[in-house]
From TrEMBL:
<dbReference type="Pfam" id="PF00849">
    <property type="entry name" value="PseudoU_synth_2"/>
</dbReference>
<dbReference type="InterPro" id="IPR050188">
    <property type="entry name" value="RluA_PseudoU_synthase"/>
</dbReference>
<dbReference type="GO" id="GO:0000455">
    <property type="term" value="P:enzyme-directed rRNA pseudouridine synthesis"/>
</dbReference>
<dbReference type="GO" id="GO:0140098">
    <property type="term" value="F:catalytic activity, acting on RNA"/>
</dbReference>
<feature type="domain" description="Pseudouridine synthase RsuA/RluA-like">
    <location>
        <begin position="89"/>
        <end position="238"/>
    </location>
</feature>
<keyword id="KW-0413">Isomerase</keyword>
<feature type="active site">
    <location>
        <position position="134"/>
    </location>
</feature>
<feature type="region of interest" description="Disordered">
    <location>
        <begin position="183"/>
        <end position="204"/>
    </location>
</feature>
<comment type="function">
    <text>Responsible for synthesis of pseudouridine from uracil.</text>
</comment>
<dbReference type="InterPro" id="IPR006225">
    <property type="entry name" value="PsdUridine_synth_RluC/D"/>
</dbReference>
<dbReference type="GO" id="GO:0009982">
    <property type="term" value="F:pseudouridine synthase activity"/>
</dbReference>
<protein>
    <recommendedName>
        <fullName>Pseudouridine synthase</fullName>
        <ecNumber>5.4.99.-</ecNumber>
    </recommendedName>
</protein>
<feature type="compositionally biased region" description="Basic residues">
    <location>
        <begin position="188"/>
        <end position="197"/>
    </location>
</feature>
<dbReference type="InterPro" id="IPR020103">
    <property type="entry name" value="PsdUridine_synth_cat_dom_sf"/>
</dbReference>
<comment type="similarity">
    <text>Belongs to the pseudouridine synthase RluA family.</text>
</comment>
<dbReference type="InterPro" id="IPR006145">
    <property type="entry name" value="PsdUridine_synth_RsuA/RluA"/>
</dbReference>
<dbReference type="GO" id="GO:0003723">
    <property type="term" value="F:RNA binding"/>
</dbReference>
Length: 298
């Protein structure tokens, strides 16, 4: 389904509407929104109560883009936009920056930088992130630009319809036969921020593809089938291949002071059309130097 944004409104063309036995075309439009368009019921009831649904001739209008103010203070620093439309935003998160403020670190978060995008444009938009990346993991982060998009993308995330592909530099030579790791992950009661493989943990599945090997390291591509905290880091450490730089899980910081983990690509169903959107994020420039060092060490 395609639609046209007109100011605060989304305009749709639902086609012929057949009124129910009791009710007119407006009631038919509400039924169409729920059963055909797949509109989130709670948001539909809210819009209906607030006059945010209008039917004029063959055009159905929904007030999906009301002005919104971000809760995060805008900080004007460069941020790379990888994809954007009226509903969603994907930006590159560099290593060493948090997704949102933690109340402790005074450094601006990605949320502050994203807030500044719309502050500078003078657009009343307050994006909300759909998924997270660790502070020192780089890669694409998906944001919803309105409540409708957030509900649709959150639901897609719950159904595991948002695909995330990572690349990592791990210690040791990964066996080419290692194609997946299926081990439950839980909290480590001996360390507040660490996770571990635990029989009582939550199901966690990671697919593994070996790309390159060096004398004492491997470049691997990883696909998350679940989204547990530190999943890739825990799984690779568990099989004897902690990430380079990942001191928390046994990796050496000789070449890098943080984990060598990068989100290579992201795929998600578009909130309006349902079509799959693919977004790539090039490998960090410092990885070229790191791989050169690993080759020299052979």
């Amino acid at each position: 389904m395609n639609g046209q944004k007109r100011g605060e409104w989304l305009e749709l063309m639902p086609g012929k509407l057949n009124p129910p036995e009791q009710g007119g075309r407006y009631e038919a439009a509400l039924i169409w929104l729920e059963r055909v368009f797949g509109f989130p019921p709670k948001l539909q009831r809210s819009l209906d109560a607030e006059g945010g649904i209008k039917l004029a001739g063959d055009r159905l209008r929904l007030r999906l883009f009301p002005p919104s103010t971000s809760q995060y203070e805008p900080v004007d620093r460069p941020v790379e936009i990888l994809y954007e439309d009226d509903f969603s935003l994907v930006v590159h998160k560099p290593a060493g920056i948090k997704i949102h403020p933690d109340g402790v670190n005074p450094e601006p978060s990605l949320a502050n930088l994203v807030s500044a995008i719309y502050s500078q444009r003078g657009e009343p938009v307050a994006p909300e992130h759909i998924h997270r990346l660790d502070e020192y993991t780089s890669g694409p982060v998906l944001y919803a630009k309105n409540t409708y998009a957030q509900l649709k993308l959150d639901a897609a995330m719950a159904r595991k319809e948002i695909g995330r592909v990572y690349v990592a530099l791990a210690e040791g030579i990964v066996n080419p036969s290692l194609s997946s790791i299926n081990e439950p992950i839980g909290r480590d009661r001996h360390h507040p921020s660490r996770r571990r493989v635990s029989p009582s943990g939550k199901e966690a599945r990671t697919r593994v593809e070996l790309l390159e090997t060096y004398s004492k390291a491997s470049l691997v591509r990883l696909i998350l089938e679940t989204g547990r905290t530190h999943q890739i880091r825990v799984h690779l450490s568990h099989v004897g291949h902690p990430l380079i730089g990942d001191a928390l899980y046994g990796g050496s910081t000789r070449y890098l002071p943080y984990q060598a983990l990068h989100g290579e690509s992201l795929a998600f169903p578009h909130p309006l059309t349902g079509e799959t959107v693919h977004v790539s994020d090039p490998w960090p420039a410092e990885w070229d130097k790191l791989r050169a060092k690993l080759l020299d060490a052979q």
